[in-house]
Design a protein that fits this description.
The chain is α+β, with helices and mostly antiparallel strands. The protein folds into 2 domains: about 190 residues, no CATH class; about 230 residues, no CATH class. It is built from 16 helices and 14 strands. The protein has a 6-stranded mixed β-barrel. The longest helix is centred in the last third of the chain and has 44 residues.
Amino acid sequence: MITGFLLLFKPRLVRGMEINMKISEIWKLVWLNLSQNKSKVILTSTGILVGAATIMLVLAIGTGGKLEVAEQFKNLNAGAIDITYEYNGNEMSGGGMPGGRMGQSSGGGMPGGMGAGAGQGGSGMGGFPGMFGFSEQTNTENIILSQEDLNTLKEEVSGISDGTLSYTSNADVDGGDLEETATYTIAGVQSNYTQISNLEMALGEFLTEEDNTYKEKTCVLGWQTAKDIFGSAMEAYDETVYIDNRAYTVSGVLEEIGTVASGISPDDAIFIPYETGIKYLTGKNVSPTLTVIAEDVDQVNAVMEQIETVLAESYPEAVFTMSDAGSKMEAANQSNETLTLLLISMAVIVFFVGGIGIMNVLFVSVKERTNEIGILKAIGCSQKDILVEFLLEASCISLVGAILGVICAAGITPLIEYFSVRVELSVSGAVLSLAFGILTGTVFGFYPALKASRLVPVVALNHE
């Protein structure tokens, strides 16, 4: 059939007996060969199919990972530095004036200022030398970071624009649509907490400085907490919830944040004035997180060094834990980029294997079609035409695999998302997958095509 088709060509004479086939004629030959071997085309393109699907999903998962990181850290201020103290029971610590806060600390909490929790334990008093005096206490003393500590840091450390104190505890909550008492995270915060943590109000207003000063029993609910207790943010506003059997008025509801990278999500918390929580929930036994904001994100490390110096002067034997939001975001992004690079490496390997498959099939095809090549040579077709024909066949096979790969990637996306992996498909990812597929077929098909174009006509015609 192909031989008969070849005799219908109307070649144009070029340089003696050599002819150049029209591109439309070459396409007809390519289409004829591929349509007669559909199963071979599909099987040959399987490697490209897997590679194209992998490339598209890698890009989609990488994009989804970046968006996930951005969402997890969207409530963080890049210049935020969290300072916590963990009491180990045998440190020498600074004393303060009588009446200072006492208690045991626990680790850091949500980035941007939310502490990890309050604890019970040893006692101690916070303070700075020269302001409240300094005395040696052993084994039973615990440092409690205070507003005085925050003020001192803001005065003595250059490059700090703002700061706040916060802590978290757990308490029984009742009211609204709750059929029974439930345990929620209660965060004691100051009035500037929303600015430092980049939180927005969905309804109402946040806690004020007056609420904190007068220890008012008022609260702000996280988005999910409002839905759990009252059904919606609108229903929650200006209602009453009972925290540890005390009535608190809901002054507002926060905008929904979603997941966070670490610590506690604001969506699931209840926020109350800092001093109110100390008075009614935790008592003096509270371990806050002190959060300061560096004016210049590029100077965070320098600010942290200054903070260490100031704290060392105030508490010579204490070891404080400091973490900055920028490092957390950078670490998360690097982890995501490492995963993306690993997946891309896998896709490249798959493409390589698929390309080898195409090369092998084309070698077999050249051998099977040696007589056809001999006829083309005999009637004067140029090497370029034969080279182009076989390259187009390889590219078409790759294109079929790439298209099927893109379709498969879109098809299995819901399955991947079922396992809580965020996938963000894009047109650019599909185009890149198609481009990689065609490029792979062209590169690996070049040598078989070159070999076919260099066959000697007499030898090719006499091949059995």
